[in-house]
Every structure is written in C-alpha cells, then in structure tokens.
Amino acid sequence: MAKKPAAPSISIGISDKDRAAIVAGLSKLLAETYTLYLTTHNFHWNVTGPMFNSLHAMFMAQYTELWNAVDPVAERIRSLGHAAPGSYAQFAKLSGLPDAPATPPKALEMVRILKEGHEAVARTARQLFPTVEKASDEPTADLLTQRITVHEQTAWMLRSLLED
Fold it and tell me: Where is the Ferritin/DPS domain (predicted)?
C-alpha cells in the first residue's frame, strides 16, 4: 500500500497535529456537502407531482448553493497544507450521508431526505468546532458558522413543507 505523503511544513500558528484533525473534519464536511449536492441535483431532475414547479425551483437554488459551498471548504483544506479529497470513492468513504435512491422517491420523500441531509451536515460542521476553537483557527470557525447557518435554515424550510 502506498504511503500517504506528509503534509508540508507550514508555519501559520496551528500545529501539524491540529491541522490534520481539522482537515479530517473538513474532509468529511466536504464529502457530505458534495453528496447532498448530488442528491439535491438528482431530485431537481426527477421531481414530479403537483408541487413540481415550486420544488424544481427550490431544489435548483439549494443545489446551486451547495455547489458554491464545496470550493471554499476544499480551499480551506488546501490552506491548511493538505490535499482535498475529490473522488466519488473518497467521498463515499468519508460521508455519513446515504447516496440518492436509485429510484426517485415521491416529492415529499425527497423533501424529507434533503431535510435529514441538511441536519446531518449541520451536525458534522458543529462537531468540528471544539477542535477548531482549541487551535484558534478563526477562518475555519467562520466557514463552519456560515455552513451551519445555511444548513439549519434550509432544514427548517424543508421541515415546513412536511407539516400538515
């Protein structure tokens, strides 16, 4: 098995050990964000039923936001001196989210799946905070705050669609 190359020595005030721990958390966040992006885009393509117009448009706004989110996460990983994961195999290994169903579900099941995905990604981002705070990594803390805000607000909006 090939040995993973060590991260280069950088001097930004965060230890190598802390940078590696932060990158591990950011890599999971990146994988989950990309997985949620792909599921949301799938649902945008495949939604049907009486709510088609509104869900099709909402899913497009959501997948566009997720697509725009992956780059800052990956670039933060690079700023910390590590390679960002970027393959489906890596994402599948890192992500705690299930893949999109092979057969498109009904519209409200799509909404439920996406709600659960946004809640899970918010939890993943939140779990990284103690490590980031310990290392005084303010740029990553700022990124996490932004991501949590988006995921919690999106989950709220999706939950609202599921209420009777």
Answer: 24-164
